[in-house]
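Below: protein 1.
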Amino acid sequence: MTSHSDAVVLIGPMGAGKTSVGRRVAKALGRPFYDTDIAVKREHGPIEDLFTTHGEEHFRALERAAVREGLAQGGIVSLGGGAVLDASTRADLADHRVALLTVEPRVVIARVKDSKRPLLQGENAGSRWNEIYQARKPVYDELADATFDTSSGPLQGVVDAVVAWVLSTDPSQEDNA
C-alpha cells in the first residue's frame, strides 16, 4: 500500500451505538460513513439468516470483506461487534484511528432485548451479551486509541466528543501547521 486511508474506525460491543454515533460523526465531519453490518445485509441479506443458513464462520468471512472495503473507502467506519476477532482485521486497524464505544450492561439490555442479533437469541440475552463483551473486551481495549461511553446523557454529547477527538488527532492538520 502506498498510503493509508483516513478512516476513523468505531469498535465496541453490540448495542453500544456504533451505527448511530458513526452516522452523526460522519455528517458532522462531512465524511462518508460505512457500516460493515449494513454492507453485509445489503449484499447478502439479513445477518440472522446468514447465521442460520451458512453459520457464523461464513458470516465472518463476509464481514471481513466488508471491513476491507470500508477501510479502503475511508471516512467513518463502524465495525460489527465481533469483527475485531479476525486477526487480519486487527492488523489492518493498526493503520487507522480507532475509537471504542462502550456501554454499561444495565443500559444495553433495553437496547438489545428484542433484537434479532444471532448471538443474543434464546433466554437471558443480557447475560449472553455480558459474556460476549467480557470475552472481547481485552481485544477492544488493545485496539482502541480512545474510549467513549454511550451509557448516559444525550447521544449528541458522545458525537461531539468523538468529533473533537477526530479533529485533534487528524494527521492532515499537522501538515497545515
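Below: protein 2.
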Amino acid sequence: MHDDETPDLTAQRQAEQMWQADEASRSLGIVLGPVGPGRAEAAMTVRADMVNGHGTCHGGYLFLLADTAFAFACNTHGQAVVASGADVAFLRPARSGDELVAVAVERARTGRSGLYDVTVLRGDEVVLELRGRSRVVPRPAAPRPGL
C-alpha cells in the first residue's frame, strides 16, 4: 500500500494491475466485479465449450471462476499473495448459458497466511463452495531489459 492510499484504493490498484496480466480469466469471459479489502467478485457465463460429457459445466471451469475471485480477494492488501491450498465442494451442476457469480470473502489473515471462503452462485442457488488458503510471497523482480 502506498503511504497516501486508503485500503479501498489499494484494493482497486492491485485489482487493476492483476487484471491486466490475467489472460486466463479474461479469455474465458470472466468479468471482474466489485473488489475491496479482503473481498472480490467475479462472474462468468457458462459457454457450450465448457460443458463436459454429462452435459454440465466441467468442474475445472467452476473451480477457475472461484479461484479467480479468491486470487483477487487475497491480493487486496498491497502484498503479493498466492494460493497455498483449497478445498472445494461441488453442490449443484451448472449448464451452458448459466450466469455464475463467485463471491470471495476473507475470513482470517495473520502473518503470511490467510483463509478465504468463496461461494459460486447461480442466482440464489449455491453451485460451489471453496475454502482457500493463501500465502504472502516476495514480489518477483522486474524483468531486465533485453532478457
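The beta strands are 31-36, 39-45, 80-90, 99-110, 113-122, 125-137.
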